[in-house]
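Anyone able to model this chain together with glutathione?
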Amino acid sequence: MKLYHSPASPYARKVRTLIAEKDLTRLIEDVPTDPYANSAKFLSVNPLGKIPALVTDDGLALFDSPVICAYLDAHSEGKGEALLPASGRDRWLVMRGEALGDGLMDLGLYLITEKRKPDGEKSPTLTARRRDQVEQTLDALFSFVNELPPAFNLAHISIACALGYFDFRHAEIDWRNGRGELAAWYSDMSNRSSLAATAPI
Ligand SMILES: N[C@@H](CCC(=O)N[C@@H](CS)C(=O)NCC(=O)O)C(=O)O
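re: yes, here you go
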């Protein structure tokens, strides 16, 4: 299988963390990809022009990260526990937690994109809304983490990758301040070998 990714992408990090967790590394060929280069070859894999994207051994092109993670979790030859429960309430809790982590990444990505725009193109109103959404989500995050099934799962991966992205790209946002339980949880997660091995660079 071919994984199109970059080491800085938090969405690709989700996939790379799952690959490490499920011991699938030897089955994956890394294809480092700059999505902004608009290469015709990459666009033939994902016309959205976004990473991560996965091409399976039977030629199926998959995107975006929730789809790729679900595929790899289901096609991992029985290695390790399922990171996305197959059914029941736990499945919805994990999918909800994954969506929360992904949404936090979306907000972080919006803010970094906005920060890099020339002055005339910036939107202070929308940026203020996105900043509020970040704070609201961070305030609520630990209670969602607490409701997750305790066994390590895809929601843990997504939320940890989102917080790691804020450390990586938004050092000015002191998200740990006043959120000691979330900070302690994240610190534990960061020591897990799959997450330590995929830290953004
Ligand atoms: N919802 C997508 C988001 C993927 C995404 O936005 N990736 C970024 C890199 S971190 C990208 O490729 N951006 C290129 C662009 O938006 O033009 C997922 O979960 O995979």
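The mean pLDDT is 97.
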